[in-house]
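Translate structure to sequence.
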């Protein structure tokens, strides 16, 4: 099991990129395995947001071992070719530590700007195009949403995790192109952490939809669940947390305390 700090990059404190960079550095020093950020353009009642790729570039330059990435980027809002360039850049800057989470996105990031793209279609077609652009091969893609003619990027290996609400089907449309899955389950608008049994069923659904049998499975919530062994047995490989707090001092203390396990850092 690997453990990661996962924080929103908006608000008076966490919308400050220098604060986020300091948290990423502290997470590496404390032995966390990953540092991941949300990816939004607009948040209700918030005006201060930090761009995820600019911030991750700074975190990558200040760290040397911790995994990092956006969880998750919408391929309907950030066009696949732009995401491919950003991911390639951060992957080279970080020495291969980037994990790219992609998803359909949320209406708040589309509606205010008049975007009417099908977010589900943008995910399924966008992941295929993204992987092609990162392959190093010439790309000619004429899809329903995206068109690319005669483009070739340098080859860069980037693991792609598919995010979305389970048990909805959207994240599984792109399963064959993903190395992992980042599910979320909401009840009455509130995030509910998957049980070990649900996590096992979700992984089985993802694999049955074309995902690799050895895929990464990351679950997330405020506090870390105690049944780590049960989650490991269910196929969960990562647990994400922000400690259940938005208070910056409390979050810094939580990060500095390190992940809830002893032993060598996961490779």
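Result:
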């Amino acid at each position: 099991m690997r453990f990661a700090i996962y924080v929103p990059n908006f608000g008076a404190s966490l919308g400050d990129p220098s604060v986020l960079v300091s948290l990423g550095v502290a997470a590496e020093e404390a032995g966390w395995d990953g540092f991941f950020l949300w990816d939004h353009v607009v948040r209700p009642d918030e005006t201060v947001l930090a761009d995820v790729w600019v911030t991750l570039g700074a975190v990558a330059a200040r760290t040397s071992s911790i995994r990092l990435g956006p969880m998750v980027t919408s391929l309907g809002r950030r066009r696949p070719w732009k995401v491919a360039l950003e991911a390639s850049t951060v992957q080279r800057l970080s020495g291969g530590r980037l994990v790219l989470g992609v998803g359909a996105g949320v209406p708040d990031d589309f509606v205010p700007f008049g975007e009417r793209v099908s977010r589900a279609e943008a995910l399924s077609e966008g992941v295929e195009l993204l992987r092609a652009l990162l392959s190093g091969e010439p790309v000619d893609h004429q899809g329903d949403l995206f068109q690319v003619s005669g483009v070739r990027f340098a080859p860069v290996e980037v693991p792609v995790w598919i995010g979305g609400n389970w048990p909805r089907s959207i994240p599984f449309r792109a399963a064959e192109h993903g190395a992992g899955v980042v599910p979320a389950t909401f009840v009455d608008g509130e995030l509910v952490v998957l049980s070990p049994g649900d996590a096992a069923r979700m992984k089985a659904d993802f694999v049955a939809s074309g995902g690799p049998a050895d895929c990464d499975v990351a679950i997330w919530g405020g506090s870390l669940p105690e049944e780590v062994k049960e989650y490991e047995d269910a196929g969960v490989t990562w647990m994400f947390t922000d400690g259940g707090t938005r208070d910056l001092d409390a979050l810094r203390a939580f990060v500095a305390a390190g992940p809830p396990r002893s032993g060598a850092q996961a490779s």
